[in-house]
Every structure is written in structure tokens, then in C-alpha cells.
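Researcher: Sequence recovery benchmark, item below. Answer with residues only.
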């Protein structure tokens, strides 16, 4: 029986959180339910836009207050390993830690987990598809810089396509056309490695037939952090 309790701060968006919860269950297979870690989920879909807070400072203080409140609530409920199920939300970690110092030992960064795995794989460069907030904040570039790994981001004209794909998942409006556009987006990058830097993108990736991307190595930060949890949860 696991003593660690996994806390998920989700709702950013809700279908991405649902997809991640299913991945958690698969990461901890068990014959009996009680042989899995306890999981607490705060699907806080009422929070302001993380992207607008990063790019324009819109409702920044409100967002930090709500992120802080959810993290504090998960800790008080018993969570020992907390996952922020949104890449852009990691831009606010310093603010969260300032408000909840004890969270620093409990939040397991999906950014750090992904960057470490990319470095261990020996990559020299990686492409990134993500929200504008994640890209402009440079969280992945900063995380990979110590390893000497270059990050190639989308061109400005690709931002609109990314936003539309992200919104299609958030609204549960995934069609064959949406999946095809997602495939085209990934294939538009010339590198051999790519980060799914928005938690909506793994939902779309799960709809793509295996082998579609050939030799492109795909890194999903949520899958990376699951491997960390598998090693660390006791």
C-alpha cells in the first residue's frame, strides 16, 4: 500500500486532466484498487487564463491566489506529490512557493521532469509546440539551457493553429479534421524530437495511429512526470 498521496491541480483544461488521471491509473496497475496510490483531483476550471496572465498580466494576482489556494488545499487534504496539470501554470511557481513555502518539496514539476528526460536521451535540439504563454515565458528553454539543448518554437503564423487545436480539446470537439491538423503541425517541424508542451496535445496525440510520425521522438511532460512518480512514490 502506498503512503504517498498524489494531488492533481487540474481543470486547465478539464479533458486534459481527465486524460492524465487515466494515465495515472495505467501507470500504477493493480489487481485491487487499494494497491494504487490515493489520488486527489482539484479540477479548478474556474481559474483565469494562464496565457493572458503571462503575456499581458491579466488577472495575474487572482490567478496566483487561486493556484495558491488549490495547492494549499491539496496539501491540507494529504497530498505529498502534487502535479500541476498545465505547462503554463509552472510560470507561477515562484509566486506559489512564496505563498506556500511547504509546497516546494511537494510539487513535482512536469517541466523539470521533461527537460531531464530529454537530456538523458542525449538530444541536442528539440522542437516545442505549446501555448503562447509557455513559449513566450521560456520555461522549457530555461529548463534545457543548462544541458546545452536548443529549443525551436513555432512561427507566429502557427500560433493560431495551436490555439484552435487546444480549444478543440478543451471543448471536447475533436474531429478527424482536428486530428489531421495536429498531425500536419507536428510534421511541419524538421527536427527529430518534439515536446508536447500543452496538456491538451497529448489528448490529440492519443488519437493518432502509431507510427504516423516516423522517427520523430515525442516527449510528453505528463508522461515524463509519471515515470518520476513511479520511481518516487512509496
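Model:
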Amino acid at each position: 500500500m502506498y503512503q504517498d498521496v498524489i494531488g492533481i491541480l487540474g481543470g486547465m483544461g478539464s479533458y486534459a486532466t481527465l486524460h492524465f488521471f487515466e494515465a495515472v491509473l495505467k501507470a500504477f496497475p493493480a489487481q485491487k484498487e487499494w494497491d494504487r496510490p490515493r489520488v486527489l483531483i482539484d479540477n479548478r476550471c474556474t481559474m483565469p487564463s494562464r496565457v493572458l496572465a503571462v503575456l499581458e498580466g491579466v488577472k495575474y494576482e487572482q490567478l496566483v491566489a487561486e493556484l495558491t489556494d488549490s495547492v494549499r488545499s491539496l496539501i491540507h487534504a494529504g497530498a505529498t506529490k502534487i502535479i500541476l496539470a498545465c505547462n503554463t501554470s509552472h510560470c507561477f511557481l515562484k509566486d506559489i512557493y512564496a505563498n506556500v513555502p511547504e509546497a516546494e518539496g511537494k510539487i513535482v514539476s512536469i517541466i523539470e521532469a521533461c527537460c531531464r528526460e530529454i537530456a538523458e536521451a542525449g538530444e541536442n535540439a528539440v522542437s516545442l509546440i505549446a501555448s503562447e504563454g509557455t513559449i513566450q515565458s521560456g520555461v522549457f528553454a530555461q529548463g534545457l539551457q543548462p544541458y546545452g539543448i536548443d529549443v525551436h518554437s513555432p512561427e507566429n503564423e502557427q500560433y493560431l493553429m495551436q490555439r484552435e487545436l487546444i480549444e478543440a480539446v478543451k471543448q471536447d470537439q475533436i474531429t478527424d479534421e482536428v486530428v489531421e491538423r495536429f498531425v500536419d503541425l507536428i510534421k511541419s517541424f524538421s527536427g527529430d524530437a518534439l515536446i508536447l508542451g500543452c496538456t491538451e496535445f497529448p489528448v490529440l496525440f492519443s488519437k493518432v495511429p502509431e507510427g504516423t510520425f516516423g522517427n520523430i521522438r515525442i516527449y510528453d511532460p505528463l508522461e515524463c512526470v509519471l515515470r518520476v512518480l513511479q520511481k518516487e512514490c512509496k
